[in-house]
Amino acid sequence: MPPPDSRIRKHEEDARGRPFHFLEARLLYCDAMLKQVLEQGRASADIALERLLPPGTQHPESIHRAMRHSVFAGGKRLRPILCMEAGRMISGTSSAGTLPAGIEDVGAALEMLHTYSLIHDDLPALDNDDLRRGRPTCHKAFGEAIAILAGDALQTQAYEVLAQLRCPAEARVDIIREIAHATGTIDGMIGGQVVDLEAEHKKPDLATLEYIHRSKTAALITASVVGGGMYAGATVEQIARLRGYGQSIGLAFQIVDDVLDLTQTSEQLGKTAGKDTAAEKTTYPSLFGIDESLRKADALVAQACAELNEFGSAASTLKDLAHFLVERKK
Amino acid sequence: MPPPDSRIRKHEEDARGRPFHFLEARLLYCDAMLKQVLEQGRASADIALERLLPPGTQHPESIHRAMRHSVFAGGKRLRPILCMEAGRMISGTSSAGTLPAGIEDVGAALEMLHTYSLIHDDLPALDNDDLRRGRPTCHKAFGEAIAILAGDALQTQAYEVLAQLRCPAEARVDIIREIAHATGTIDGMIGGQVVDLEAEHKKPDLATLEYIHRSKTAALITASVVGGGMYAGATVEQIARLRGYGQSIGLAFQIVDDVLDLTQTSEQLGKTAGKDTAAEKTTYPSLFGIDESLRKADALVAQACAELNEFGSAASTLKDLAHFLVERKK
Predict the structure, then answer these.
(1) Is the pLDDT of residue A303 over 70?
(2) Best A57, A115, A149 residue to mutate vs chain B (most B CBs within 10 Å)
(3) Residues B1, B257, B81, B173: what is their CA dihedral angle, to the nearest 10 degrees?
(4) How far is the C-alpha of A256 from the C-alpha of A328, rounded, in Å?
(5) Mean pLDDT confidence for A161-168
(6) Which of A96, A112, A94 is nearest to A104 (CA)?
(7) What is the C-alpha separation between A234 and A96, in angstroms, rounded?
(8) Which of B174, B94, B155 is nearest to A180 (CA)?
(9) In chain A, what is the straight-line distance between the N-terminal and C-terminal CA atoms, in Å?
(10) Residue A249: is its pLDDT beyond 80?
(11) Bridge partners of residue A132, in order along the sequence
């Protein structure tokens, strides 16, 4: 049974006396706007990735084809979209503001880093997964050696791109430091992956589970939002707001991911379903059940949106994106 | 039979009429100075690495212990030393000039990148090596999953360090771009590794062999020298000189490495000897024989030193280091 739509609930709680059919119409409008943000964001991330990744005909071809195989496998480009929309919010006063020129390159670098982590996570020595986004994983298609090197190369390429962004050098080094830390071993992506590996077939406590989620997933999502803000010249206070938003939606995103692993088929997911149960992983739903996990995710989204209240209407897209991350559960 | 000492030959060719015993005494003095440069450089690189790598007691411990296992396995720290001495040459007019403050952090980042490449090269899917610098390889000591992630993490940590160097942000992004490109897929370290993998059990031509050596080894050595120069504020012309020097010594270094693989024992090398022959790899000595390969290496060293003539006596340490790379063969 799906839980009630959190957006309608939110609007009802506004107590502004608007009738339900008005709210319903507004929701349809929001959905259409959000769909446009997602589609346009994905398209511009893809154009940037196409430009910034060496072509498959570039020597040595195998590695470039392997990098492209995994990058162009139908990802939603959530991290680039969050990055670009954070930049748009900071640079404009309205949600119709234009994107800061060149910010899609930050998004492309984030997607390269995300893809490198997927390629390495899928390796036989780690999750040993054959399927990713509905296609053979990199090592299945190109062999283990090239997959390891393709992951390495996507990480390298990301930093080469970030070093050449069209923003002041000071902002570039800030973005690089932020992203490197978020993907590192201390409260970052690799640290989360290590603790996750070591927690298999054990029963970690809630603190360990939260460490895994915050580090493995939320850290890079947070860096995406913060990096986009930095690109657009955000103040220290604005960065702190973006960080709070990113941390909350990042954790909500991972909770929903764990739920989807339980409730959806491999076909729906585009990757092997039920992996967590098979690996006896502790997840939010395994500790709290599905309903309570989703309530927790909703609360985190509300908290994320509250962080952005001071940005007024300019924050509406990031707020819609926060809700969208949780709506995926339906 | 060892070939004649190229430094004595060089001095004889100077035809400055100095008697042999004078040259011999000067050589002993140079050896003592060089030994000091190598020992002090290694010590300051090690101190920087100790400071910049998370301690083995830092959560999650396994990954930090694995990173340190491979980094502190007795490397010569050649890349950091080349980087620091390039910086010293640019910043001072004499070879007794002081090091630019904080340049050892560039060196430490270079060593992290070099170590990441060794960890991944040693994996079962690549070279499948059990021994490195006389110790068990990372995956032998910590398992494959942690070894893959430790390599990833060393790359990440290198960029986090580079983003926080004590030089202007403009120089930092230049250094990051230079190093990322040198370790990437196009004429860089990963590209060289891919072509090397694909050349096994084949008979690649000289052009392919030179591509492998220039990309797999010389590119990062060049970036070490160029990066050190950039840190010290080198001009575009000075960078071009350093690049020429780095490319020549990098290729000479790899030729000598191939010779050592044939002529030394595993114990002397601290890694498995005879690997190239076993893998039927084409190498310089397999194409030209040992003597001709060493003559080629000597010529490259002379070429490297000629690039630095305009720096006068400030270049003496880098010139001595160039000779040292080839002298390893004895």
Answers:
(1) yes
(2) A149
(3) 150
(4) 8
(5) 98
(6) A112
(7) 18
(8) B155
(9) 9
(10) yes
(11) A135
Identify whether the C-beta of residue B325 lies closer than 8 Å to the C-beta of residue B252. Answer: yes
Amino acid symbol at A5? D
Which of B58, B159, B194 lies at the smallest CB-CB distance from A180? B159
* pLDDT tens digits, B60-110: 999 999 999 999 998 899 999 999 999 999 997 544 568 999 999 999 999
CB A249 within 8 A of CB A258: no
Pairing of strands B131-132, A135-136: unpaired
Q: What percent of chain A has pLDDT over 70?
A: 86
Residue with tokens 């962080």: A307
Give the residue carrying structure tokens 């830390």.
A181
A126 and chain B in contact, CB less than 8 A = yes
Q: What element of type H or E holds A136?
A: strand A135-136
Does residue A6 surpass a pLDDT of 60?
no
- Check: pTM over 0.95? Answer yes or no: no
- The answer to whether A259 and A286 have CB atoms below 8 angstroms apart is no
DSSP designation for A19: -
Flag whether residue B63 sits within 8 Å of chain A, measured between CB atoms. yes
The ipTM estimated for the assembled molecules is: 0.91
Residue A158: is it exposed, middle or buried by C-beta count within 10 angstroms (0-12/13-18/19+)?
buried
Region of A174 on the Ramachandran plot (φ > 0 left; ψ -120 to 50 alpha; else beta):
alpha
b/e burial code for range B72-92 (CB count within 10 A of at least 16 → b):
bbebebbbbbbbbbbbbbbbb
- Which alpha helices (H) appear in B200-235, and where do they start and end? 206-213, 219-231
* pLDDT tens-digit map of A57-115: 999 999 999 999 999 998 899 999 999 999 999 997 544 568 999 999 999 999 999 99
| Phi/psi at B135 (5° precision) | -125, 165
Taking the CA of residue B44 and the nearest CA in chain A, the distance in Å comes to 24
Question: Is A143 exposed, middle or buried, given 0-12, 13-18 or 19+ CB atoms closer than 10 A?
Answer: middle
Chain B residues within 8 A of A170 when measuring between CB atoms: 169
Residue type, B90: I
* DSSP-derived pairing of the beta strands A131-132 and A135-136: antiparallel
From the list A74, A21, A18, A25, the residue with the least C-alpha distance to A46 is A74
DSSP lists the bridge partners of residue A131 as A136
What whole-number distance in Å separates Cα of residue A76 and Cα of residue A78? 5
Structure tokens given for A289: 């059940």
The more confident residue out of B240 and B19 is: B240
Mind listing the pLDDT tens digit for each residue in B295-324? 999 999 999 999 999 999 899 999 999 999
- Spell out the residues 6+ positions from residue B254 whose beta carbon is closer than 8 angstroms to its own: B213, B216, B217, B218, B284
- Alpha-carbon distance of A84 to A95, in angstroms, equals 12
Question: Is A35 at the interface with chain B, CB within 8 A?
Answer: no
pLDDT for res A261: 85
**What pairs with residue A147 in β-bridges?**
none
Question: If DSSP codes are grouped into helix, strand and coil, which group holds residue B131?
Answer: strand
B157 touches chain A (CB under 8 A): yes
Between strands B131-132 and B135-136, the pairing is antiparallel
CA distance B153 to B40: 27
